[in-house]
Design goal:
Number of domains: 2
Radius of gyration: 17 Å
Shape: globular
CATH architecture of the largest domain: 3-Layer(aba) Sandwich
Oligomer: single chain
Bound molecules: 1-(2,5-dioxo-2,5-dihydro-1H-imidazol-4-yl)urea
Structural class: alpha/beta
Order of helices and strands: EHEHEHEHEHEHEHEH
């Protein structure tokens, strides 16, 4: 069976589209085509509530394009899962965010996990998601490497080394059985860190690809019975005209 899965990087970094697309294709089934995209306008990286609000609109724009191109499922590849429920309203196929994909996957292989993310101010975004999704009691600790998201794309390797060092420290100190990587830009690090640490290190992009493939195989679309029904038809004005 062949299928098209759209991976949306909600920030406008083309370098990050490439690394996220590579990570997605590395685990995709032979019949899965991955199309990796980003919004036509928005923020270069998502590190605050302000950035998330702008990114969410870009996610909706891309869900609309993806549907028109025949994508059967969609992935929101930013660790704050910006616009997730709104995207589900707009979409027909399944929509999975990388934070929720990573949390679900981690609890299948460990009772408690640690999150390693980018800037300290993004920790509150992860905390809110843990509460909202009901994973609070599964998260043993959250850490920030204290570098911005785009440091992961600067080619120096410094951010990657900081992620590695934080993961090693978390293994020694946190008492958790798995580590969740808290940024789409960390996607390429999971497999080598899993090997080096000898414990599961989970990247939400690859976890989301396998979850969306499973939902498509199970013929499970987003429920249109209830609150995730298509948005109520109304005239949107200005730049939003026709979005719904
Ligand atoms: C993110 C992410 O995954 N992509 C982005 O731009 N910001 N979130 C994060 N906590 O680093």
């Amino acid at each position: 069976m062949s299928q098209l899965i759209q991976v949306i990087n909600p920030n406008t970094s083309h370098a990050m589209i490439r690394s996220i697309g590579e990570a997605a294709r590395a685990v995709a089934a032979p019949g899965t085509e991955i199309v990796a995209v980003c919004p036509s306008q928005g923020v270069p990286s998502i590190e605050s509530h302000f950035d998330e609000a702008i990114a969410a609109v870009g996610v909706l724009e891309q869900i609309k394009h993806g549907k028109a191109q025949g994508a059967q499922g969609h992935i929101i590849a930013c660790f704050g899962d910006p616009g997730l429920l709104a995207a589900r309203e707009l979409a027909t196929g399944p929509v999975v965010g990388i934070a929720e994909a990573a949390f679900h996957t981690a609890t299948l292989v460990a009772t408690r996990f640690t999150i390693v993310t980018t800037l300290p101010r993004t920790l509150i975004i992860a905390r809110h998601l843990l509460q909202q999704y009901g994973f609070e009691h599964h998260c043993a600790a959250l850490h920030a490497i204290d570098l911005p998201v785009l440091a992961l794309e600067d080619g120096s390797g410094l951010a990657q080394e900081k992620v590695r060092a934080r993961c090693l420290q978390a293994k020694r100190e946190d008492g958790s059985g798995a580590i969740v990587l808290g940024c789409g830009g960390m996607a390429g690090l999971a497999q080598s860190l899993t090997q080096e640490l000898g414990m599961p290190v989970i990247d939400g992009v690859s976890a989301a690809v396998k979850l969306v493939e499973s939902l498509i195989a199970l013929r499970l679309n987003t429920s249109k019975h209830g609150d995730l029904d298509y948005p109520i038809k109304k005239e949107l004005s200005g730049a939003f005209h026709g979005l719904n």
